[in-house]
């Protein structure tokens, strides 16, 4: 099962059970708590004459670069409809298979794909799978010597961070490893109930 990520311009991850259309929607009167993401990021809030605020779903915009729509234990689904199995090297307009099996394979050689490119990327985001996964911190110093800032995050956080920075037109790349574990969320239960109801109605119509 893929866990879908819907990204809005106020830095929220929206559950797919309340998937929003690409058109603008009204923001609730009360503020919604969200986890801060690395600067520099800007809100994309549109102000109307009647003082309404609206947000845009970034990974549903037609002019957006590559973004991660969903991920699972076997791979990733992008906003262009492409599904990729296994670890990926993701760039603003390009996706490649990344030949690593786990975080143990992340080293100077496996990172050469990112620092040999021209023009050089500003930031490399590593999605290392599950929370609490440890990585050899020497790679941070190594990439700094190459003039590239390295951010190490759990895969889910790495996907959302890449989406935001790519939408900001930053020259950013991501090396993403599928997580080993996916805990069930309320969104997963709601989607399962919705799918079960749809299947029941389809069978009832056939009868």
UniProtKB/TrEMBL annotation:
One of the GO BP terms on file = mitochondrial respiratory chain complex I assembly
Q: What's a GO cellular component annotated to this UniProt protein?
A: mitochondrial inner membrane
Keywords from the UniProt entry: Mitochondrion
Q: Which domain of life is it from?
A: Eukaryota
- Location within or outside the cell: Mitochondrion
The similarity comment for this entry is: Belongs to the NDUFAF3 family.
Q: What is this protein called?
A: NADH dehydrogenase [ubiquinone] 1 alpha subcomplex assembly factor 3
Q: Which organism is it from?
A: Scylla olivacea (Orange mud crab)
């Amino acid at each position: 099962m893929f866990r879908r990520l819907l990204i809005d311009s106020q830095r929220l991850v929206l559950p797919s059970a309340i998937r929003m259309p690409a058109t603008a929607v009204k923001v609730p009167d009360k503020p919604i708590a969200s986890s801060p993401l690395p600067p520099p990021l800007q809100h994309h809030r549109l102000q109307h004459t009647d003082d309404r605020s609206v947000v845009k779903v970034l990974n549903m915009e037609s002019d957006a670069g590559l973004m991660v729509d969903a991920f699972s234990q076997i791979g990733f689904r992008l906003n262009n409809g492409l599904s990729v199995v296994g670890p990926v090297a993701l760039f603003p307009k390009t996706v490649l298979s990344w030949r690593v099996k786990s975080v143990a394979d992340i080293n100077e050689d496996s990172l050469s794909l990112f620092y040999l490119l021209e023009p050089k990327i500003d930031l490399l985001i590593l999605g290392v799978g599950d929370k609490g996964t440890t990585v050899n911190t020497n790679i941070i110093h190594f990439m700094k010597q190459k003039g590239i800032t390295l951010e190490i995050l759990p895969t889910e956080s790495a996907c959302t961070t890449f989406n935001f920075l790519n939408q900001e037109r930053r020259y950013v790349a991501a090396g993403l490893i599928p997580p080993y574990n996916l805990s069930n969320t309320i969104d997963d239960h709601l989607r399962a109930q919705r799918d079960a109801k749809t299947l029941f109605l389809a069978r009832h119509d056939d009868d």
